[in-house]
Amino acid sequence: MLNAIEISPKVWWVGGIDWNERLFHGYTTERGITYNAYLIMDEKVTLIDTCKATFSDELVQRISQVVDPAKIDVVITNHVEMDHSGSLPVIHRIAPNAAIYASAGAGVNEVRAHFGIEATPVKSGDTLCIGERTLTFVTTPMVHWPDNMVTYSDVDQILFSNDAFGQHFATTKRFDDENDLCEIFKQAKKYYANIVWPYGMQAHKALEAVKGLDLKMIAPSHGCIWRSHIDEILEKYEAWTTYQTEEKAVVVFDSMWHSTESMAREICDAFIAEGVSAQLVDVKTTHISDIMLYMCDAKYVAVGSPTLNSNMLPTIASFLTYMRGLSPKNEQRIGLAFGSYGWAPLGPKQVYAELENAKFQLPVPVVAQQWIPSEENLAELQDTVRKMIEAARA
């Protein structure tokens, strides 16, 4: 029998742990995933979220460690995406009289569309008394679906925060202070960069609402519960949701015969020479979701491709497509397009066009090198990067 974990008096973690999942929505989850669900034992037995459908048995077993699942009175669906709500039909069959709550409009409609189940609508500021506790709902649309909301328990001072503040990180230790904090912050940043980043403005509004709460814990739908480092994760979300950058550069490239690679290495060294820390990334060896982790707070992004069949390389096109979908619409990042070619510089030009479409600032023209760059050509890249940095700092 799988055990529930009491995270606060009469509040239990009853979710599922997927140790082996390595891909979620196109990004790598090298540390696995948890699907967090929470059970509150009050006059009304309340379940907050469920699990991915394949973890229904784990969910039911853990709930059964605390109470007969048929005695559940209330189910709160903070988010209908099926890694959160996939086990809702199972709970509905076991406890058919349990009242289900979801956000007005989108949440109720999505529960019906996914499962044919009716839910009671709630909106921001609505409350639900479950006995000793009163739950307060705050809708957080587009963080990262239209239906999203968070739930706050006043007695426990716990914010059940849904996707916000989450991490894809499988562990049996439920709290931030029980795990490697550096790894948790890394996974929180990677989660933000690959899931929440396009909705920074909406996430910032949700963050402002959170700041007014007395918090002992933030309990997200994925990963560890924050209890000892709440201020730190709020500070990081403040930076991420306001698109703050650091004096860092990411140089992303692919290469066929090392010409573009030589340019990438020179560009990376040029940033370092100007006092800007730099990360050199070969897309052949680094997954695009990890590149977004590096990009999340980097001010400078240089992207290089040679020309193949009158196009940039497919690997670079894939990265740029993924990046464009995640790129916030009002950020101020500085871009550089570069690469090599044989008889037409179409690859680097296409990179430039994609960066332009993604609203990057492009203070210098595309840098296209025919055939193999000479030492003089590479030295010129130092000047190019210097001009780029000077323009940005001006």
Structure description:
In the N-terminal section; belongs to the zinc metallo-hydrolase group 3 family. Residues 249-394 form the Flavodoxin-like domain. It comes from Collinsella stercoris DSM 13279. This protein is an alpha/beta fold. The protein has 2 domains: 5-242, 4-Layer Sandwich (Metallo-beta-lactamase, Chain A), CATH 3.60.15.10; 246-389, Rossmann fold. It has 12 helices and 23 strands. The protein has helices at 56-64, 82-85, 88-94, 106-115, 181-196, 200-211, 230-241, 259-273, 288-295, 314-326, 346-357, 375-393, and strands spanning 5-8, 11-13, 16-18, 23-24, 27-28, 33-35, 38-40, 46-48, 74-76, 99-103, 120-122, 127-129, 134-139, 149-153, 158-162, 217-220, 246-253, 277-282, 298-304, 307-308, 311-312, 334-341, 367-370. Strands 1-2-7-8-9-10-11 form a 7-stranded mixed sheet. A 5-stranded mixed sheet has the order 12-13-14-15-16. The longest helix has 19 residues, at 375-393. It is elongated, with a radius of gyration of 24 Å. The model has no long low-confidence stretch (mean pLDDT 94).
Layout of helices and strands:
Blueprint (H helix, E strand, L loop, with lengths): L4 E4 L2 E3 L2 E3 L4 E2 L2 E2 L4 E3 L2 E3 L5 E3 L7 H9 L9 E3 L5 H4 L2 H7 L4 E5 L2 H10 L4 E3 L4 E3 L4 E6 L9 E5 L4 E5 L18 H16 L3 H12 L5 E4 L9 H12 L4 E8 L5 H15 L3 E6 L5 H8 L2 E7 L2 E2 L2 E2 L1 H13 L7 E8 L4 H12 L9 E4 L4 H19 L1
Parallel strand pairs: 8-9, 9-10, 10-11, 15-16, 17-18, 17-19, 19-22, 22-23
Antiparallel strand pairs: 1-2, 2-7, 3-6, 4-5, 7-8, 12-13, 13-14, 14-15, 20-21
